[in-house]
Specification:
By secondary structure, this protein is mainly α. About 75% of the residues lie in helices and about 0% in strands.
Length: about 260
């Protein structure tokens, strides 16, 4: 019995482990490999009935066939993991853009999901996106989509050129949406800082003796921090409103939507 479940569960993990690996809400790269592998197996176990049913016709297949199917499952999981992770990376990039524009790109902190260097506002936005993902039941919705995906993309399906092109196109669409979302989320800070620069430029023309450049740095820093703090509610609403579109893209990667 256990041996009969091992192969379907391993193939399920081939689809879920890349998702756990790439999505910051699951802990990110800061978690040890065994923990991420265990979380991937746990996520795959939620779809165990579908996995067993889909893998039943393949029990007599050769090891080469299993490896080929496993490679396809890793590709599907990697694409879905990238698409979902872009929801978080868009928020992080928006915070980083805000820090660059206010001249605080040198002030870096450790990103909470990976231990790498990140901007402080980017880390704040990333944490907010993670909280929103969990509040909206992102893990449950991903699990449900994974369970349904084994009908749209069954384990026995062989890789095809059309399928690879579709997955590549999905990554390109998601990448463009990442840039669009990052700029949109950072728009209030961008507009405020541009207006501040215009106002300071006018002051500099009127009073040439005033060291506008040095005076502008603390002004822009305080202004941008104030806008970030005041705009957290709007950012929360924007992330909540944007999550269904990211989920729809992830479902496309799982074969649940053709467009």
């Amino acid at each position: 019995m256990v041996q009969g479940l091992a192969l379907p569960l391993a193939l399920g993990a081939a689809r879920t482990v890349p998702i756990v690996w790439l999505v910051p809400a699951f802990g990110g790269r800061a978690l040890p490999f065994p923990v991420r592998l265990g979380m991937g197996l746990l996520l795959a176990s939620f779809s165990l009935p579908q996995l067993v049913a889909a893998g039943a016709p393949l029990r007599s297949s050769s090891a080469a066939v299993w490896l080929l199917i496993g490679a396809r499952e890793v590709l599907v999981g990697a694409v879905v993991g990238l698409v979902v992770s872009f929801f978080f990376r868009a928020a992080e990039a928006a915070g980083g853009l805000a820090d660059v524009l206010r001249g605080a790109s040198f002030a870096e902190v450790l990103a909470p999901d990976s231990g790498r260097r990140s901007s402080p506002t980017g880390a704040l936005y990333l944490l907010l996106a993670t909280v929103i993902f969990l509040e909206l039941g992102g893990i449950g919705r991903l699990s449900f989509a994974l369970g349904r995906s084994y009908q749209a993309l069954p384990l026995g399906g062989a890789p095809s050129t059309a399928g690879l092109q579709a997955q590549l196109g999905l990554v390109l669409v998601a990448s463009a949406k990442l840039i669009e979302s990052a700029v949109g989320l950072a728009a209030p800070v961008i507009v405020a800082l541009l207006l501040a620069d215009l106002a300071l430029g006018v002051v500099g023309r009127v009073t040439p003796a005033l060291p506008v450049y040095f005076a502008s740095m603390p002004v822009k820093a305080v202004l941008s921090v104030g806008i970030v703090l005041l705009g957290l509610g709007a950012l929360d609403a924007a992330l909540v409103a944007g999550w269904p579109a990211w989920l729809a893209l992830a479902e496309r990667g799982l074969g649940l939507h053709s467009r």
